[in-house]
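agent> fetching stored inputs for the NAP docking request
agent> found them:
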Amino acid sequence: MSTRVGVLGATGAVGQRLIQLLAPHPEFEIAALTASSSSAGRTYRDAAKWRVDTPIPDDVADITVVGTDPDEVPDDVDLLFSSLPSDIGASVEPAFVEEGYVVSSNSSNGRMDDDVPLTIPEINADHLDLIEVQRDNRGWDGALLKNPNCSTITMVPTLAALEEFGLERVHVSTLQAVSGAGYSGVTSMEIIDNVIPHIGGEADKMETESRKLLGSFDGAGIELHGADVSASCNRVPTLDGHLENVWADLAGDPDPAAVAEAFRSYPSIDLHSSPEQLIEVFEEFDRPQPRLDRNLGGGMAVSAGGIETTSNGIQYNCLAHNTMRGAAGASILNGELLLEEGYL
Ligand SMILES: NC(=O)c1ccc[n+]([C@@H]2O[C@H](COP(=O)([O-])OP(=O)(O)OC[C@H]3O[C@@H](n4cnc5c(N)ncnc54)[C@H](OP(=O)(O)O)[C@@H]3O)[C@@H](O)[C@H]2O)c1
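agent> prediction call returned; pasting tokens
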């Protein structure tokens, strides 16, 4: 039997990806869609300006969008995927969880809270049990689970694979696609023929979230990973796919072949949306590229290439699809983990 799910912020860039991925999903059935008051009361077809590269699913198009309020969502919906702006998510998500809903959220609010699990199922599925601490602390029956920021998700699987060489310090410079800012985030006048060398709050998210993801859970809380992470984030005129240049200082001194093998052999997980090969490695120095490689593994794989040694460790490039692996797909994968681990 399918689990009944809803999408909060269903009309936006990430919301539409969620609909695209949930409509054919074997374990989930879309039962509620919410957005702002300007969309509420309209059919999804009418409220969402559909921009995804597959047709709007017929059975979803006729659903009436409701306001983002727990009273508007049926009680028999078991799981909510949230793709709300973070300032809205900060007030609305706890209100849903207080009412007993389980929320798998993309929004950045609360990601670094001590009792909120931040997970990439292939990397730190054990952190999910922080939900028990959350329920004790807050008296909630529901649960709030977060996936990380899209630029963080792109890099962290590769860092996890480098752990065996003693990860000490990370520098990363990103080239991030415009879809990462949402539909109204960056205007064409700002980005065509241009690069914007700053994305508000993004570097801080990479520096903190990656240490939480790689940290250890002792049953009571997360101890952040000790590696120092510094990031510089740039918006470039690609549509989808964040490319990142990473320099990792290591205690050991593996050669590029050993790093490539560590990337390739890093295990995936047996969940519907997880790719068979988590990290795809290119031998060519001019790959991965956003247009060519963002859809690997159904948009859920991370790819890496250009691996070279440095005086302190290793340097490489990595890439992931920011609205699939970096947002909607990440949230759905977390939903699959919640289901698998009996939280629904
Ligand atoms: N884009 C990415 O690659 C990406 C990656 C990772 C995380 N995220 C995060 O995911 C979230 C959504 O991003 P997005 O790019 O999808 O944004 P977006 O395109 O601007 O969509 C925002 C959604 O939230 C709804 N909304 C706006 N104001 C609301 C309000 N006051 N009450 C209820 N609903 C409201 C909108 O509904 P209306 O259509 O009715 O206005 C729309 O459905 C953000 O927190 C973002 O940081 C995005």
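agent> quick read of the result: The chain is about 30% helix and 25% strand.
agent> awaiting further instructions
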